[in-house]
Amino acid sequence: MSDTPTTGIAFGRPTGIVRLFGERFSQRLDLRTLTICGVLLVLAVAVAVLTLASGEYQIPVDQVIGALFGQASAKLHMVVVEWRLPRTLLALIMGAALGVSGAIFQSLTRNPLGSPDVIGFNAGAYTGALVIITMTGGGFVAVAGGALAGGILTALAVYLLAWRGGVQGFRLIIVGIGVSAMLTSLNTWMLMRAQLEVAMAAATWGAGSLNGLGLDRLLQVSVILALLLPCALILSRPMHQLEMGDDAARALGVNAEGTRLGLTVVGVALTATVTAAAGPIMFVALSAPQIARRLSGSAGVALLPSACMGALLLAAADFLAQRAFAPTQLPVGIVTVCIGGLYFACLLMREARR
Amino acid sequence: MAEMNEHDPERTTTSRLSARDITIGYDRRIIAEHLNVAIPDQSFTVIVGPNACGKSTLLRALARLLKPTAGEVLLDGKTIHGHPAREVARTLGLLPQTSIAPDGITVADLVARGRYPHQKLIRQWSREDEAAVIEAMAATKVTGFSHRLVDELSGGQRQRVWVAMVLAQQTPILLLDEPTTFLDIAHQIELLELLRELNRGKGQTVVAVLHDLNHACRYASHLIAMRDGAVLAEGRPADIVTAELVEQVFGIACLVIEDPVSHTPLIVPKGGNLHPFEEQFK
User: Fold this and answer.
1) Residue A7 domain-assigned?
2) Which residue of chain B has the CA closest to A110?
3) What ipTM, to 2 d.p.?
4) Cα(B221)–Cα(B225) distance, integer angstroms
5) What is the CATH number of the domain that holds A337?
6) With contacts defined as CB-CB under 8 Å, which chain A residues touch B101?
7) What is the domain extent for residue A107?
8) Minimal Cα–Cα distance from B218 to chain A, Å?
């Protein structure tokens, strides 16, 4: 495949080189990162299969795998492939989307606390959903649309408020925290004024849940992610250059503001897609990139391991949400907040010790 | 000053990079107006001046990082903002005053990032990339610790790594903004010697902003002295550096003598309380 298996340079990490098609294609591969990605993916798939097997109706794992490959009874096929599979696949791809989104914002802000939550997206999405639920009483499409509009408008407002001839990561975080706090109090006020059933509907949406998501939602989400994820991968090269500072990156030919705007749009769109489909799922975007980075030891956050870690995290959280207090089904957002809270406490303690 | 001949008397007077009547500043604060500067090709040009004289701002304008509000910076006879960013990045490299090494990056990985303007999405590690990184690391003597984390290095080593990153860019023109500021004297000399080698050996045009006037006189083949956003003098250090010029630029009284080692001008500040010693020189 490659004519030079290793490089003459000591990169300090296992490195592989691929050169193909008369060297028109060449890549330098970080083998440890790739291994970690592989392991995380295998784990995520394993958790997914476990989720498919368990439920009110337990199915042995070998029969689940048989059903996935079309070698099972019609009844088994219906339970595994038609009922359980769309939701499990959604957990995987939405987890990956959140992981990538978090990696983008952490790279942009050069801060492990950077995430779509930080620039006010989730608070804004909740405001949007609340307005729709209060005014129209709900309906999935209307609420999703309201959440999208709210989240994107908030992100845009934060971006513009943080603009001083360019956007700096730290200013983005500070402005984001301020705007989030104001929106959160607005949300509380709206909930307190609302009638009981409206408040109930809003709270259910606000917890973030995969309950009841089916094939139609899977198709919509996968089409959007199939468009967004390649954009993120293309932008990841200038993104890594930007980590060296604007001047260094621009001197290397990077369009700093354009790249940043593009990354912000893709990052917000990824989170928006997930939020529209399932409500706000917190902490996956925040924790997945950092856990992946610790595992792979890569320089800065990287998109691919973050995606794999996000998929594993959300799949595992969804398994817990379904099985931890069965038959009671928890919203997956509750589980991610618990896991994320633990992670957050660890992170803060580490930072405080330094 | 016979040794001064080593500064290439046949130096070409052509200039690929120049600023023509530029006005530069940040927001609405003007730093310099109607500035004219030409960087002689293959020269080791050093820009000196007191703090806030506009020397770093000028360098940023020359590097296309700052757009002049009037006038233009010319690269190969064409306004630099008319060139695509990546094309400029293949012609001139810049070491900014402060750069950030991403957490957990190794030396070789950071140096490899200098190849960005030569790479494409599907062509990210060609043989040329590899050769350029090997060469840049050898020239800066960082090959021996190319596997180590940048965070673990000493200040001098780290600065050499950053220079290697800019060298890997393989540009005929190299701009450096105060590259010696955070280094001790040994590492300052080491870095300046390295820049001189690049300048003489490969004929790379080097433009550096320096704080130390004596270093500037010693290493520059072309000196630009600035104050309050204006160029006060420009030329070979031996031709332009006088006690009057230093007083004009930095506002200090001094003697200018010949450096016994390099035979370039050596500035000896008089200072306020040194009058008894001053008598000795009269």
Assistant:
1) no
2) B102
3) 0.86
4) 13
5) 1.10.3470.10
6) 244
7) 30-353
8) 28
